[in-house]
Write a structure and sequence with these properties.
It is a single chain. The chain is α+β, with helices and mostly antiparallel strands. The chain has three domains: 84 residues, Winged helix-like DNA-binding domain superfamily/Winged helix DNA-binding domain (Arc Repressor Mutant, subunit A), CATH 1.10.10; 96 residues, Periplasmic binding protein-like II (D-Maltodextrin-Binding Protein, domain 2, 3-Layer(aba) Sandwich), CATH 3.40.190.10; 109 residues, D-Maltodextrin-Binding Protein, domain 2, CATH 3.40.190. The chain contains ten helices and 13 strands. Helix 1 crosses helix 4, helix 2 crosses helix 3 and helix 5 crosses helix 10.
Length: 299
């Protein structure tokens, strides 16, 4: 660090023509500047600057060293400006991971909306239902369902959604009698890969439709009959009548032509969504913009 400081001091002494002007520029005393020059020449074991009471001149070694000091200073200034520019206009690589259920229907549309006008932004997207190591894998943002207990990450709740228990109209019609008499083993359940063999759902009644014949809540338990490792496959199986299962409400809303709710008067509890990142100080503007866009889309 001291070498870079000495090189900067030397550059200003040469560029401004005197120790006095260099001291004024750097806002230090003349003795500090003189000390830096003396220490620099001592460590290099070479004379860089010939000085008299009236003028100063560079040696051959000093001229060559001065040019390199100027190059170093220009690179440092450019690096500083580039870093500041990243906080003004998003650019460069932004690596984002999100669960399969959220990536295509939530994250992708949000990112397109916010970054389509910024051609210098490069996106690397990873659909993954697991818990990636953000630091080890160089991930800028992780969108996750449920709160994380990892203390070294910054996390922010950005919204919520509800899963909807649904199936094709024909499937739901066939299940209504079994639901009424609680013959759950007769109902084929299409599970996402992260769900267990035994499925338990707790429902609360939707506001505005409760009457004396309805209960405030109900609970249903199923056994997994089919399982899919991706949401699109699970969705397709539901539409084609393989059984009933849950999908997020924002996806269900786009497939009401093919799917219907099994319990239209009841709803599952909200599921919180969080955005996580590992930045401890200034967060890059691209990361901030991406999180805000996803939160807006979720909301």
């Amino acid at each position: 660090m001291s070498k870079l400081k000495q090189m900067t001091v030397f550059m200003y002494v040469v560029k401004l023509g005197s120790i006095t002007k260099a001291a004024e520029k750097l806002d230090v005393s003349k003795s500090v500047v003189s000390q830096h020059l003396k220490q620099l020449e001592s460590e290099l074991a070479v004379t860089l600057l010939k000085r008299t009471t009236r003028k100063q001149s560079l040696t051959t070694a000093g001229e060559h060293f001065y040019q390199q000091c100027c190059t170093m200073h220009e690179l440092a200034e450019q690096a500083w400006q580039d870093a500041q520019q990243l906080q003004v206009s998003p650019q460069g690589l932004i690596k984002i991971t999100a669960p399969h259920a959220l990536m295509d229907h939530l994250v992708l549309p949000a990112l397109h909306e916010v970054f389509h006008a910024y051609p210098d932004v490069e996106l690397e997207l990873i659909s993954h239902d697991g818990r990636s190591d953000l630091m080890q894998e160089g991930i800028d943002i992780a969108i996750r369902v449920g709160e994380s207990k990892i203390s070294n990450l910054k996390q922010k709740r950005i919204g919520d959604f509800r899963d909807v228990l649904c199936g094709s109209l024909q499937t739901v019609k066939a299940c209504e009698r079994d639901i009424e008499i609680l013959k759950m083993d007769n109902i084929r359940y299409v599970a996402n890969h992260w769900q267990e063999k035994s499925i338990h759902h707790t429902f609360t009644h939707k506001k505005g439709s409760l009457n004396k014949a309805c209960t405030q809540s109900c609970e249903l338990s199923f056994k997994t009959h089919h399982k899919a490792n991706t949401l699109p496959t699970c969705l397709s199986m539901l539409e084609q009548g393989f059984g009933v299962g849950i999908i997020p409400d924002f996806i269900f809303a786009k497939h009401t032509h093919a799917l219907t709710e099994l319990l239209p008067d009841y709803q599952l509890n909200k599921v919180n969504v969080y955005a996580l990142h590992s930045y401890q100080a200034a967060v890059p503007i691209g990361v901030t913009m991406a999180i805000a866009a996803i939160a807006k889309r979720l909301g």
